[in-house]
Amino acid sequence: MTTDKEKANEELEIEAPDFMEQQESQTQKETKKDKAHKKNKSEEQLEKAEAELLELKDKHIRLQAEFDNYRKRTLKERMELLKTASESVLIGILPVIDDFDRAIQTLDQVEENSHLKDGVMLIFNKFQDFLKQNGVKEIEGKDQPFDTDLHEAITTFPAPSEELKGKIIDVVQKGYYLNDKVIRHSKVVIGE
User: Fold this and answer.
1) What tens digit of pLDDT does each residue of 114-139 get?
2) Residue span of the structural domain in which 170 resides
């Protein structure tokens, strides 16, 4: 019996290292698989996080650009509004300018050293300066070529000379710009 036991123990000792080696190799294979699996899983998580980061960066850049465009657009609209805010008031003043022009034409008949003429000219000059400060300019008319964007033809008249054909002979009512925008067209007579 002892010999049987000894033989069995010897066989176990001989087989045990093989068994132990197999178990160790299996655990090594399993740990390699676990490590590879963990690497794959962590790589997937890293790739997913990078994709989310890129998506968030893209959204952030687009939102920032959209806000910048909004800011520029509102600033531009505000500037245009400020330029033309007084347009209706200045258009209402234009008939007063016409009356001043007529008054000055009749004052040319008054003697030179008249205080009345000096006072009216002083008021007229201040009024003209006020209009210039607010961006109102007179549209040039007499002896200029007719332009439908700036002038309104009331009538045609035979031209006194060949040079004035198709040009403006007389300005019946002056036209005006407000910051390079026509607020009133000149009413003119064209030579034919």
Assistant:
1) 788 888 889 999 999 999 998 899 99
2) 86-191
